[in-house]
């Protein structure tokens, strides 16, 4: 790498060694279910060579680890990955240079779960669900994992179908029973999702509900943010900021979405959102936020038409890219711009693109160069507003002339 780049990194308080060390410490867990055939409700297309059992999934995950060096953990889903001899699984994983990561209980594919699992009105069904999660805790202990990742399909389809407050209390009681079964050092990550498979109400629909549950349960419970589980337009970075501040951000399920829980390759649809998420985490970490250092980063995707191993490698690259960009943000300059009320300077993200600009013979910061040129001031002097000026700007100028600012004026210009 050129010393020019090193110098530029240094200017923003980042050393090349520090940057590389941060990237080395960063790891992403891949999901066993991302290596097997999966599909939509319309069709499951077979991918030649797709893994058929846990051992094959681990062998595929080892390929991802081999080329990325950043994915030693593999999340498992019970019963999809059920095995008789968990010690042998642990041993096999370690021979491949892997370890078993989060254990995901499955509380949605049993006939008994038609009306829910941990929130079900029937105590016997709730008990069955609780026992399944406890079995997953035991599996986690056997394979040396310290994370239980819980997602519920529980909810209702019709108003009045069940009592919402009773469902909530039943869920909390079930979670409390599960929580006391956690050994020291094991964490319970509580995932949320705003709809699907239930459509009227979901028992854990949003981060606030998961946070309340985690706070009621205790310090071993945290919130898991699946990036595909929010309504359109939700500001996930702000959710992340709040959870970091509350010391309750347990982990991520990374994937990307356009419409619903699409489970597409992370960063493929909205890479800027991913960057904004990492910007919050890196910013918090730089200020000494302890939570920023204990986040479980996981991929949760469904590769329906893509080659599965390549899709996973691409996902890891996209996550690393977003993280790397966040590491390169000049935090001092950002803070200065924020506190100077310089809205657009604070929004601007500087990257190694500046290196390219220097090589093009341009200023690394095009807007700063434009501001320094004095062009805007010159044309403002030389071009007096005329009645006939065209376009939206003409309209804005006319409105500004016709409507002088008054104490009572509202933000929106009005219809
Ligand atoms: C859910 C959620 C869970 C995943 C299941 C299969 O939508 O994302 O994390 O385990 O799908
Ligand atoms: Mn998920
Ligand atoms: Mn999902």
Kindly list the characteristics that best describe this protein.
binds manganese (II) ion, alpha/beta, 10 strands, three-stranded parallel beta sheet, 415 residues, 16 helices, binds beta-L-rhamnopyranose
Give structural notes.
This protein is 45% helix and 11% strand. The chain contains 16 helices and 10 strands. Strand 8 (221-226), helix 8 and strand 9 (249-254) form a beta-alpha-beta unit. The strands form 3 sheets. The protein has a 5-stranded parallel sheet. It is α/β, with parallel strands linked by helices. The site of one manganese (II) ion has 6 residues, from loops.
* Mean pLDDT value: 91
Number of helices: 16
Poorly predicted runs are none
Strand content: 5-15%
Task: Please tell me what the overall shape is.
Answer: globular
Could you describe the largest sheet, including whether it forms a barrel? 5 strands, parallel
The strand order across the widest sheet is 4-6-8-9-10
Report the span from N to C terminus.
Answer: 55 Å
Order of helices and strands: HHEHEHEHEEHEEHEHEHEHHHHHHH
Bound ions, cofactors and other small molecules, one mention each: beta-L-rhamnopyranose, manganese (II) ion
Quantity of strands, as a count:
10
Pairing-aware structural class of the strands and helices?
A: alpha/beta
Share of helix among residues? 40-55%
| Rg (C-alpha, Å) | 25 Å
């Amino acid at each position: 790498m050129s010393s020019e780049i090193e110098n530029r990194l240094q200017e923003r308080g980042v050393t090349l060694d520090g940057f590389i060390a941060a990237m080395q410490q960063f790891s992403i867990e891949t999901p066993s279910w991302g290596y097997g055939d999966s599909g939509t409700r319309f069709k499951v297309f077979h991918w030649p060579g797709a893994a058929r059992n846990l051992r094959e999934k681990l062998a595929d995950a080892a390929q991802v680890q081999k080329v990325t060096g950043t994915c030693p953990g593999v999340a498992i889903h019970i019963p999809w990955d059920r095995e008789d001899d968990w010690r042998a699984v642990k041993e096999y994983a370690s021979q491949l240079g892997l370890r078993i990561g989060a254990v995901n209980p499955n509380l949605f594919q049993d006939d008994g779960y038609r009306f829910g699992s941990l929130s079900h009105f029937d105590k016997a069904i709730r008990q069955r669900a609780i026992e399944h999660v406890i079995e997953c805790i035991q599996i986690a202990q056997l394979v040396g994992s310290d994370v239980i990742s819980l997602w519920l399909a529980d909810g209702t389809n019709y108003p009045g179908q069940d009592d919402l407050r009773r469902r909530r209390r039943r869920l909390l009681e079930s979670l409390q029973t599960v929580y006391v079964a956690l050994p020291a050092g094991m964490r319970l990550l509580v995932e949320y999702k705003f709809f699907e498979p239930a459509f009227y109400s979901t028992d854990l629909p949003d981060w606030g509900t998961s946070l309340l549950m985690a706070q009621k349960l205790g310090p071993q419970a945290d919130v898991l943010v699946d990036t595909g589980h929010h309504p359109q337009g939700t500001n996930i970075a702000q959710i992340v900021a709040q959870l970091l501040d509350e010391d309750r951000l347990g982990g991520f399920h990374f994937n990307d979405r356009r419409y619903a829980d699409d489970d597409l390759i992370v960063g493929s649809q909205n890479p800027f959102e991913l960057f904004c998420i990492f910007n919050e985490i890196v910013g918090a970490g730089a200020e000494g936020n302890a939570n920023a250092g204990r986040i479980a980063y996981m991929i949760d995707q469904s590769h329906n038409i893509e080659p599965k191993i390549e899709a996973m490698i691409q996902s890891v690259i996209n996550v690393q890219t977003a993280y790397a960009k966040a590491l390169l943000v000049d935090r001092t300059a950002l803070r200065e711009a924020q506190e100077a009320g310089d809205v657009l300077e604070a929004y601007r993200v500087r990257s190694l693109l500046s290196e390219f600009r220097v090589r093009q013979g341009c200023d690394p910061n095009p807007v700063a160069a434009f501001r320094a040129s004095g062009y805007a001031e010159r044309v403002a002097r030389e071009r007096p507003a005329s009645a006939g000026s065209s376009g939206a700007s003409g309209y804005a100028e006319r409105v500004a002339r016709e409507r002088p600012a008054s104490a009572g004026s509202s933000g929106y210009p009005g219809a």
